[in-house]
Write a structure and sequence with these properties.
This protein is mostly helical. It contains five helices and two strands. The longest helix has 13 residues.
Length: 98
């Protein structure tokens, strides 16, 4: 199984709100400090085949678990937390340190 197939298999088995967290991680991980990358709703919507209402539910749940933070600027800005990075890395087996 290739690395991409392995990650796809993990993604499919994740709880739905962790799929949203994984998507936020995928968007932010290329940044030198992913926890400060300002992820916007449109970036998530373009990658997930879910309605905005469902994504908002996931965001609220992830925020209550301390895995992301949000703030309202001109649009909603979402930041993955160190705890969120650790959660995704534990789910995917990624050995990078947060």
């Amino acid at each position: 199984m290739s690395g991409c197939d392995f990650i796809s298999a993990i993604f499919i088995r994740m709880n739905a709100h962790y799929q949203t967290l994984f998507t936020i991680y995928e968007i932010a991980k290329a940044d030198q400090r992913p926890e400060i990358y300002p992820c916007r709703p449109r970036e998530i919507i373009l990658r997930l085949m879910l309605s905005w209402d469902v994504i908002q539910q996931h965001i609220n749940l992830l925020q209550s678990e301390g895995l992301i933070t949000t703030r309202q600027l001109d649009t909603l800005v979402i930041h993955i937390t160190g705890e969120g990075l650790n959660k995704i890395r534990s789910l995917t087996g990624d050995k990078q340190s947060a």
